[in-house]
Structures are given as C-alpha cells and as structure tokens.
User: Fold these one by one.
Assistant:
Number 1:
Amino acid sequence: MKVLACVKPVPDPSAPVAYGGDGRLDRRGKLVLDEADSYGVEVALRLAEATGGSVAIASMSDAGDLSPLRSALAMGAEEAFVASDPRLGGADALTTARVLAELVRRAGAEVVVTATESADGYTGTLAAQVAELLGWPALTFASAVSVEDGVVTVKRQSESGTLEVSAPLPCVVSVTAGSVEPRYATFKGIVAAKSRPVTVLDLAELGLGPVDHDVQRVVEIVEAPGRAAGEKIVDEGQGAAAIAAYLESIKVL
Amino acid sequence: MSTVWVVVEPSEEGWSESAGELVTLARSLGDVVRLVTWSSPFDSLEAGRYGATLQYVVAHDESRLVADVVVGALDELSAREGSPDAVVLSSTYDSRDIAGRLSVRWSRTVVANVVGLRHLDGDGWESEHLVAGGARIAHTRVQSAALFIVRPKSVTPSTIDAGPVESVDVPAGSATSSARVLSRMVEEREGPDLESAPVVVSGGRGLGSAERYQWVDELARLLGGAGGASRAIVDAGWVPYSRQVGQTGKTVAPTVYVACGISGATQHLVGMKGSSHIVAINKDPDAPIFQVADFGVVGDVTTILPQLIDLVRARRGS
Ligand SMILES: Cc1cc2nc3c(=O)[nH]c(=O)nc-3n(C[C@H](O)[C@H](O)[C@H](O)COP(=O)(O)OP(=O)(O)OC[C@H]3O[C@@H](n4cnc5c(N)ncnc54)[C@H](O)[C@@H]3O)c2cc1C
C-alpha cells in the first residue's frame, strides 16, 4: 500500500514570528519540518510497514530549501513530491488542498496522512478538503490509526469523548500530535535521504490554473490584546497560604 | 440583502452559548439568518430571540460522521434556495470538517480562528483572525461567500425583540463518504462543564506525572470548578482531550483560572486569557504564564498544590 504523508516546512518555532508588509508570514529565516508532521510521517510509516507498502512525502513549499523535507525522508519515506511555484505564496487552504490532491494523484497513494493543523497557519480544514477533492472518506482528528483488510480504523477525538470510526481504502486521515512516538532518523536514514528522489512540479506541470489571491487579503497585522502581569512572589513555604488568601480576596474561597 | 447560515452543534439544553454567540454575530452580518443544526432542534423561542429567521434541523444517523451527513444536506438546500453569502461555524472538529468539505463543493475560501467579522460597504467581509498562535490578529479582506470558523467567546451574545422561528426538518444528505462510526465513548464528568465553570484548575507537564493530576482534580472539586489541561499532558495521554484548554482545545473564561506547572505558550494562553483572574504556580520565574498572571507563585507545584488543597479543605471544613 502506498501511503502519502503531507508535510509543511514552517519557520523555526524557537525564532520570533515576523510578518512581511503583505501580511504574510516571513519564511526567509530557517525552516524546519512542522513538529506536528513528524506524527503524520510516523503513522504513515507504520501503516506502510503493516501492509508491506511504502511512504512518499507531499509538500507545497519552496523547493529552494529541501532540508525540512529531507528530515521526513530520513525517517524512512522513499520519495517526495513537491509543488513549488512563487504564485503559491500566501495561498489559502483550499488552494493548498487542490495542489496536494494533485500530488496524491501523481503519487498514486491509497492513504493520505496529514496533521490536524499546521503550527503556523492552523486552519485545520485541509484533510477534509483533500478528501472532498478526491471523493474519499476523511477520518480526521485521529489519536490512533490501524489498517486491516483494506479498512482503516481510527479513534477520533471529540469535544466530549472519543469515537471509533472506520472507512475502506482509499481515504484521508489526520492525526493529532502525540498519537504515536515519532522515530528518530538513524545515521543511515539521514545519508539515504540525500539520494531519495524528489519530484518538483510547478502550477503548470500540476495542470492547475492561476491562484486567486483576492479571496483573502491581509490588510493589517496587530498585536492581540494583552494582559498586564500582576504580583509575583517566590515560595518560601508561604506560597500556598498566599494563594489561599488571594482566592479569598476575590471571593472564590 | 445578505443571507448568512450559522452551523452549530445541537445542545441537550435546547440552546447553547455557542449558538447565542454565532447567531448574534450572523445578525450583524445579514438580514436572513438561517440556523443549521442536526439531530435535535434548538428551542425556537431562543433561536428567534437571538436573531435567527429560520432553523434547519438535519436528520443525523448516529452511524455516520456529522460532516458526511450535514454537508450533503446543505448542498441540497443551497441547490434549492441559493447558497448563502457567508457561513459562520463554531470551532469544533465536526464544524471544521463541514467547512472543509463545503469549501470544496462551493469553491469558497475558509477563514479559521475568527474573532471578529463585519460586512464591508461594497462587497465582501472584513475578518479578524488570530495568527502567531494567538499573539497577533490579522485583519483580512475576504471576498463574498466565504466560510468563517469562529473562535468561542469572541462575540457577546445579545437578544432582540422577536418571536419564535419556524423549524424545518431536513433529510440527511446523500452520504458524502462511506465512513462508519462503530462506537462512541463519552467522558464521565462530575461537577461543572469546563467551558462554563466559575473556577478552572489546569495542570501541565510541570506536574511531573499523570498520577499528580489528581491534585488538580481535587482542588477543582473543592473550589466547585472543573479540571483543565495543557496540550502537552493531553498528548502524553495523562488526561483526555476533552480537558484541553487552548488554541486547539477549549476556550474558558472563569472567575479564576489556576495554572499548575504550565509554561504559558501562546497557544495555551489564547484559551484562557479571558479569565477574570489568573493564578499561576511555576518553578521558572521567567515562565511566560507569569506575564498574564494576576497572582504568581514561583515554586514547586508538587509541594505547593498539596499544601493548598489542605488549606482549602480546612477552610471549607470550618
Ligand atoms: C498548532 C498548535 C496548537 C496548539 N494548541 C495548544 C492548545 O490548545 N493548548 C495547549 O495547552 N497547548 C497547545 N499547543 C502546545 C503549546 O505550544 C505548548 O507546547 C504546551 O502548551 C506546553 O504545555 P505545558 O505548559 O504543560 O508544558 P511545558 O511547556 O513543558 O511547560 C511545563 C512547565 O512546567 C514548569 N515546571 C516543571 N516542573 C515544575 C515543578 N515541579 N513545579 C512547578 N513548575 C514546574 C516548567 O517551568 C514549565 O514552565 C499547540 C501547539 C501548536 C503548534
């Protein structure tokens, strides 16, 4: 079974966030594989291992810097499909889904795995959009995934509990962070990743038309309203009593 | 004249905070406000008071995913009566899936994490949505006919002088996918609901182990509140997702929020910054949680929390 994991390079989360004058996230600094995607790649590898298949990576990103994708390949994915085109900068989630659905077709995958949302954009709709474009079931927000006899079964998180949901192949799955322990890349994997095939396609090669950037246009980015810090004490045995007194002062205790 | 559809999950109580917020918002955006839910209707008096002009209730077979049923039904409705100028949805998982599928069917853009929305004089909308994990707000021009996923507690619900609305039953749409729900497990809950509790005590990785979450529960119980969590300990499997507070969890605004061993990442803060009072216990004096705390204690949560429980218990006992 061919499994495709969708991944996204995002600005290094330890660096301060910056926006350009066009209201778009500044991606010129160091990019890393979105941590959320390491879970998707791990789930994809396990599904492939369980069925004797293989994993490919799909990404809509600037092919000028492939290092974040190489980290996914180093975990054990065998090839990568990258949609790279300057006109895709600032694309909305629907455009991203159209591009990724096209990559799914190219890769000939039967299962697509995504994270539940990216660290930088977090629209959280991509898996359902890709599924709808392909006409496939979407098993989203999964905290556990298994496959048997051509049927994928997941534990879906809900606001009040969990559901067990299944669908026949082909299907799209989105997995939560923490669903599995992502493996570390081995030295052998890191070396092998350097020679794994990477297919780069632009919009024309994907057979997709121009991108309409007017559907959403950021006009301004402002600071979210903050809160002022209040009193801070160091516990020297009196901390608990001080909290109790504070709770009393606001009439909670 | 603009038509706005509001998609919101049903509530056993016949009305919900979420429905009140979204219908209030929709009323400011258009003159025709259609409330869409599934399984069971909202109270038609309440729906009318908040400003809905009609309610659609989609039949939902429990063996199907909500989105698979609702999307088909909405698609058939829009074919009959035209598609709306905007759809506003709550931020739940089912709503995200509905928004995702509808965006493809109707070829519309989706804006998520919306905290403000208004109609522009010409055409289209100006939305405000959270970016940078909640640290910034992006003001965005959005073309007409978009889908907006709105964050909870972003709108202050208000009512108007209007009568009950008509409820229309809508058959389940032709199934969107062959996915089947095999079973449902609902978390048992004692005490108040996390999203409306007057007191929320939350635990993070600083607790050190899953067992110590009992202290969080115990303090919450003693204070008549609910227990919450950071995503780190949900991902670690210490507590179920239903307890998660933050960007991808619940949004709470209690009288007091007590953060125990939580660093205060922006994605956590966005779910609790609206609390009236914030208390934090963290051993790191530079933890970002102290930047929003009204009362902070730098110290070891594993010694302070049991002491605090004893003090509260003593006070409650007397
Ligand atoms: C797309 C996305 C969405 C996210 N959504 C959410 C969300 O909804 N909710 C959420 O919470 N997070 C969310 N996160 C994760 C968030 O960025 C943080 O990783 C998470 O909140 C950290 O949880 P924590 O504070 O428990 O753990 P840590 O960051 O590990 O912090 C533990 C804290 O405990 C303190 N500590 C350690 N030992 C002790 C002790 N003995 N006594 C006192 N203090 C101690 C430490 O000083 C530290 O500050 C999201 C991240 C992304 C990328």
Number 2:
Amino acid sequence: MTDAVAGLPPRESKVIKYLKGMALIRESVVGMIGLGLIVFWVVMALLADLLAPFPPNATLYPLAMPGQFVEGMGTFWLGTDHLGRDILSRIMHGSRAVLIFAPLATFCAYVVGIPMGLAAGYRRGMTDAVLSFVANVILSFPVLVLYIIIIATIGASAVNIVIAVTFASAPGIFRIVRGLVLDLRSREYVFAAETRGESPWRIMLVEILPNARGPLIVDACLRVGYVIITIGVLGFLGLGLPPPDPDWGGMINETRQMAMSFPHMTIFPCIAISSLVLGFNLLADGLREVSLRD
Amino acid sequence: MSTKQEYEGPILECRNLSISYFTRAGEIPAVVDFNLTLEQGGSVGLVGESGCGKSTVAMAIMQYMGSNGGIVGGQVIYKGRDLATCSEEELRQLRGNEISMVYQEPMASLNPSMTLGTQLMEVPLCHEEITEKEAYDRAVQILADVNLPDPERVMASYPHQISGGQQQRVVIAMALLSNPSLLLLDEPTTALDVTVEAGIVELIGEIAKKFNTSMIYISHNLGLILATCDRVNVMYSGVVVESGSVEEVFDHMRHPYTKGLFSCIPLPGTDKLAHPLVPIRGQLPLPHERPSGCYFGPRCDFFEAGRCDQAMERGTTPMHEVTGRAGHTVRCERWSEIDWESYKPEGVVAHPSERGHEVLSIDNMRKYYELTDNSIGAMISGKRVRYVKANESISFKAHECETIAIVGESGCGKSTFAKVLMGLETATDGDVMFNGKDVAELPVQNRSPEQVGSMQMVFQNPFDTLNPSHSVGAQLARVIRKFGVESDPVKIENRVMELLDLVKLPRDFARRRPRQLSGGQKQRVGIARAFAGNPAMVVADEPVSALDVSVQAAITGLLMDIQHTYRTTLLFISHDLSLVRYLADRVVVMYLGQIMEQGTTDEVFAPPYHPYTEALLSAVPIADTSIQKKRIILEGNLPSVMSPPKGCPFNTRCPRKIGDICETQVPPFAEDHPGHIIMCHIPMADLRAVDPVIVQVDKDKSAAE
Ligand SMILES: Nc1ncnc2c1ncn2[C@@H]1O[C@H](COP(=O)(O)OP(=O)(O)OP(=O)(O)O)[C@@H](O)[C@H]1O
Ligand code: SF4
Ligand code: SF4
Ligand SMILES: [Mg+2]
C-alpha cells in the first residue's frame, strides 16, 4: 500500500538481497571449492538414510578391507571396523552430529561474545576493564586443557560440548567484536544516533553491529572449522558424543589401536574431518577475498 | 651537492598520456590525452574536482601505477628520456634522486617508531657515499631550510612529538634532501589548518626560488594554485579542459567548466543576496559513463547538439589554441563564439530575511574535562586532578532565522561546544537557554522528543554520516518516529518523501543504500535527517568542507534555502572564512576554547580586528587575482589545551603582542559597536587604525598608472 502512495518500485525482499550479496562468492575459486566441500557434506548428512549402503550401527562383517565384496551383503567401499560396522555408512551418518553441533556451538559462542564485545567497545571504562579482564583470564588457559576440564566436570554430552565450546570461544569473539566496535563507535552516524537520544543498546545493535558483520561472518566460518576439530578431538579423547552413535572423533578413538594393521579405520574419518574443516577455511578465505575486492 | 648532469630544456613533458585502471567492471580510462610541459624552475598546478585524475597523473609521472593501473598511450619524458624505456633499477634511482613526491597525509610518509633524524639521514646515507656526520649536517641544514625552529631538537624527536604542520615540513625536507629536479605535491596542505597551510604555501614558494626545483602542485583549491603556481591545468573527468598561465586562466577563462568552477566559490565579491554562488548542474560522470564528444556536454550551458557531442578521434574534443594568447589552450568547440564578458551563470537569488525572536542564549558557559593524573610526580605534588578547559566563558546569542558562524582551527573547542548544545556532554558552569529553557545540564536522554528534534546536527563527513547498513528511507523514518512527528507508517512514509523532495533528491532514493549515493547526495540526506523534526536550530559542523566545490555551492544553497523557508537558526561551524563571509550574518571567532571576537560579518571582516582574526583572514587562499592580502604567518604551534598559556590564550603566537600584560592578565572584552566584541589588551583606537587585510585592487587602473 505504502509503496503505491509513494509511487516506488516494490521493495526487494531482505532475504533475496542477502543471498545476492552472498552469491558474490562465485567470483572466488577458492571460496567455491570450500563451498562445494561444505555442500557435499550437508547433502551427505541430509540424505544419509537414503545414500548409506548399510545401517550405521549394525554389526555386519568385521575387519573388511576397503572395496571388499562380501557375498550376500554387498561392497564395503571403505571397509568395516573391528565390530563389523560399515565405515562409509558411519561416516555419512556421523556428519550429522558435526554439522549440527559445530555451527550450533559457534552460534552460541557468538550469542555470548557479541553483546559482551559491544558493551565493552561502546561503553569502555569500567565495563571494558572488567570484561576484558575476564576474557584474558579465560584466554590464558590452553584451550584443550580448558575443554577437558569443563567436559570432565560437567560430563560428556552433546549439550555440554556446546557449553564448553561457548565458554572457550566467546572470549575470542569478544575481542574481535570489541576491536570492531572501538573503530565504528566514532562514526558520525553513531554520533547522530546519540544526538537524537537513542538508547545505548539500540545504537549497539542497530547502528554498530550490522556494520561489523563482514569480518564477523569470515571469522564465524573459520571458527566453525576450529569447532569441528575440537569436537573431533573431544571424541578422540572419549569426551565426545556417547557411543554407539557414529561420531568422527569417536571413530578414530575406537580404532586407533588397530591403526597400524588396519589404517583405513582411522584414515577415512580423519579425511572426513579435514575435508570439512578445509571447506570452512576455504570459504572464509573466499569471503575475505571477495569482500576486499570491490 | 650531487652529481646531476645539467639539462637544458623542459624538465618534464607528458605527451598525449592516457592512463587506465583495470577492474572487475573492465577498463576505466582515468586520464585521457594529457599534455604538459614543465620548464626548469617552473611550477604547474593541476586543479579539479575529486576523481578527475589528478593523483593518477602524479603516479604515472612517478611510473608507480599500482597493481591494476597502466599507461595505455603516450609518453612521460623526463629530461629528454622516455620513462617507459627505463628499467626498474633506473626508475628507483630517479625516484630517489631526481623526482620526489609529497602526499596529503604527513604521517603516511613518516615512520612512527624512528626518530626524524634517523629517517632524514637514511636517504643520503644509503644513496650516496658520505659519512654519518655529513648526513647529519645536511639533515639539520635542510630542516633549517624548511623553516623549522630548533632543527637539532626536531632531529631527536619522534613524529608524534611534533605538530601536523611541522610533520609536513619534515616530509617536504625529506623530499628535498636529494635536491630533486622535480617535486610533486599532492594536496600537501589539505590535512592542515589554514594558518599552518599559509606557512607551508609560503615555504613552497621559497623552495622554488632557492633550489630552482620544478614543481607540480595538485590541489582542488583554486586559491592555493594562485598562491603557488605560474601555470595551471584545469582537469575535468580525466581530461585537461583548460591550460595556460595562472593569470590567463583566472582572468580570461575560455572554458565553460572553468567559468563554472569560479562561480561556485565564494570570492570576496560574492554576496548571497546580490551575487549568489552558482552550482554547476548535474553530476560528474563516472569514467565509463562519459558522453561522447565533450565530456562536459551534459552540464554545459552552451551545449550544441551535433557539434559538442560529436564522436572524436581522440575520444573527446581536441585542445584548441586560444588565438592571440600564447600558451592558452581550451578543450571547447565553441570557445570563440561565447560572449565571455557578459556570460554570468544564473543563480538563485536569496531573499533577505528578518531575524526573529531569540532562540539561543549562552551565558558564560564553561566545559572542563577532568583528567586524573596517575603519575608518581602528580601523586607527590598532590595535583592529581587536572582540568582541560575545552570551553571557557562562552557567551553569545542567536535569533530565529539567523546564521551564526563559529570559526576556528582544529582543537579550538568547536566540537565540544556542539556536544554541550546537543546534550551529549553537560556544561560545567553557565547557562545555555534554548527556546526559553536551560539545557546546559540536561543530557540528551532527559530531553523531550520535541526538544531533541528541535535542535539537530548536520555532520562533516558525507561518507560517515549515514549508516551504510540501512536504506536512506529507513534512516529518515527512524528519525521521524523518534521525534514523535508521526507514528502511522503511511504518514511516516509520506513524510520521508516530503523530506527527499525538500532536499531535491528523487523519491526512489528512499530505497537506496548510502553507498549508492555520491558525497553530495549523502550530505543532502544528512540535511533531510536534521530537518526531520522541524528543528528551531540546526548545528552544521563543517557541512561542506569534504565536498567538491561545485557540490559545495549546491549544498550551501540548499541549506540556506531550507533555513529561509523554515526560519531555522543555523549555527555554522567552519574554518573556511570565505564561505563564512558569504553566508553568515554573525561570526564568532574561537581560539583555544575561548571567543576572541564576535560581531556581524561586516564588522568581523573589517578593522578593528582581533589579531587572531587578522591572521586567519590573511591565511585564507583566495582565487582572485585582483585581491591583495597582507601576509601574516603565525609562528609556533597551537598550544595544548592541557596547558593553555596564562593571560591571553593567543599570546604565544600573537604577532601584535604588546608586552608582559598579555602573558599575565586575561584580556578584557572590549566592545567596538554594541555586539562587536574583541578580547584583547590593545586599545580599541589602535585596532581601528589597522589596515584591512584583504583589499581589492582595480586591475585596469593599476595597469594604467
Ligand atoms: N586503483 C584504482 N582502481 C580503479 N580505479 C581507480 C583506481 N584509482 C583511481 N581510480 C579511478 O580513477 C579516477 C581518477 O582518480 P584519481 O585518484 O586520480 O583522482 P583525483 O583527481 O586525484 O581525486 P581526489 O581529488 O579525490 O584525490 C577516478 O574515477 C577513480 O575512481
Ligand atoms: S564543447 Fe560544447 S559542451 Fe563542451 S564545453 Fe564547449 S560548448 Fe560546452
Ligand atoms: S591580548 Fe596581547 S597577545 Fe592577546 S591578542 Fe591582544 S595583543 Fe595579542
Ligand atoms: Mg588525489
């Protein structure tokens, strides 16, 4: 209606605009490779039930080698593990956990880190001093030790992994956001908002945060990669998702004693982890490249 | 000094130079068909609006085109050698020894972590075989040559320990160290205050004489070109449109664009009532959207279809010699047909406006910032809290429909003053009566929406004034809602459209993002935003200083127009005295947080002057050859507000200081006429006897004598 009053062309939907912005990634080869890897794993996760040749937790035929054909069952393209479970099917199903919990944990870390960074960067003074101190204390622990302490204390479960990742990553995000805000807060549009008496949180969330989104999106991609590694490491240490559901890190852990004689049991989950991490890193590189170009 | 072979003939020649950048969007022809001849000891100015290719020419002369730029045609010939044939090594030698460049930002050329001495000695030490002692002596000598007091101390300082003007002097000294034959200066004073600029400009003139250096001086300011150069090239959208000696081009311009440029700048003869500024209509075309034929065609009053827009062999109209005027060329097909004497671009004549009731009354306002000093020395002496006196005893009044200019250099407390008015800071002492209510201690959160809406600001930096993440319409709508002007979405939308109409922007700009707007368009939105709440007063903080002159004229005109319609009070903060003289009714001159002089524009621009006003006036570059100015160069630096001088704040730099009294006693507010107040110890009679700073000499008469 209002558009008719003003005689304006219809508004372009926000989502479409955003997607158009995102589509610029096409111009970066590296970014496209990264995106391809991620899409590959997302498809795997979504269609695991259809695509996986075997049920992931079924004991079928122990110690099959990759590509081995077993009469009456079919081909184990990536072999089976010591309990006779098909590795390909487990990897495909395992991608679900990673692709749900890694982005979720990263998201939670941002939900905590962003407001802290905004408050510290915008208000400065005492707020900044206290928050920065807390962040520095947390950051001064070796990350892995921190994870182990947390998980060991609160127990191993999917939710607790999210909590641990949030706790350990939020300070890093806090620092990045704080730095960006310190720069953006002196812009004249922020000053203009202040002179019309906007509330501080509105200024932080509406005036400042959207302008920090570029670097934050790149950082988020990298961070999802780190979190995937973290989840893998926690799984490897036996602190990951409880068995028997497939979990890439856990798969490596369960089979590591046999790695010398049956390398395929550990190598394929490792490749899965690295390829997904690589995908996110390349995407981050691509996004940075595209955003720098103009 | 060095072993440069003597060379007769022009130092530098550019022949039909064309330079392009290669980007995602394809080839951008940044400069087309550029010609220039620079004689030994000569100085050529390149003047033009932002993006017309001035810096690109400079970089091409340095053969330093970055990753995506390239010379696509023509030659750069330095002392008879085509630079395109030189190897990288030879070019490095040339750049070190023969051609030097000075950039706008002094800090970009200085390393913050090394002493200036080390940086100055580095160059000769690595290029020539000399001892450390010789290098040191030479550096000290060159610092003395650029008129830096106490060169030894400067040698031992780090860049941040000296002021911006001194930094630029050091950069110029560095450029002169190798005794170059050619000095390129790209807007060397744009980042500096006017009084500091005046010193640098004088220095540049001296260098040309002392070292016989040839210079290319790049600026957007015609006044500075007049002060520094003997020839000038006026550039427009990648081409030189007019070239000739400075006197020729300034007094007998033969290109409609040059004429337009001069009509955009407030010269002493302009007056908002009788001779208003005339903006050039339309916008500068982007390099890939240039029209065929004459690039200025769509904006030109003399455009003739079929002739001006004819496709040309070189891509644009060729240069024509102006007959009878040696060395004067113009890129216009019709230059000889235009009646230049009677051609005066039409401006919108403003109407005088009656000033109304009192809107703002500031009485003895002070703003001190408290600083806690945690050093041990401060703890021992017990003086832990220090005050920064950002504003001291500010008193003045503003009426409805009046334009008050606040003039002063950076750090004089203008921004603090604006913050107190807007309620972002509260005054330490004194009254700020706005519409009958004291708002001195009322922070913006405690003001009512009407109060907030009735006093708004227009900001300086067009690239920063709008939030890049939100559409223009959304930003205006937010302001309307916030000030409680409207609350119904349809009415808000309508009001947004009205505001866009008000600032003469097309309505579909409401959907646009700020980055799709030019600087001038953004500033228009900034003005619309300030006027959204029907303000009684608008504070404009340098609203046009970051814009091109032709855009400046349009924005100033718009601002005056809206102000007149709504009878708004305008507080115009500026350092540009020419502009102030053009549009202000009254002027307040500030220095170090205090008002030195205030009065009506005519009173302030004529004797009696405060000595600081006098220096400011003489520092303003004026692009008019018939103007003669007194030359007053202020010595020393702006003192820090942390430790202002005792007595008169101006006493450390005042050329008219009368003695100890200036250092011990705060000067009285002396009144010349009622309302014209000067804060100085010099008796009013003596101040009245001072000669005017700016005098218009009648050229024809003085020529006849
Ligand atoms: N690296 C680059 N890549 C692409 N285009 C460029 C590049 N540098 C400059 N340009 C374009 O070339 C044209 C000339 O730019 P240039 O910087 O020479 O202008 P200028 O006259 O020095 O402007 P200003 O007064 O703003 O310094 C402009 O249209 C600009 O957008
Ligand atoms: S060539 Fe034509 S359009 Fe271009 S400046 Fe001359 S008269 Fe104007
Ligand atoms: S009081 Fe003295 S120092 Fe101050 S401006 Fe007047 S003459 Fe100069
Ligand atoms: Mg430039």
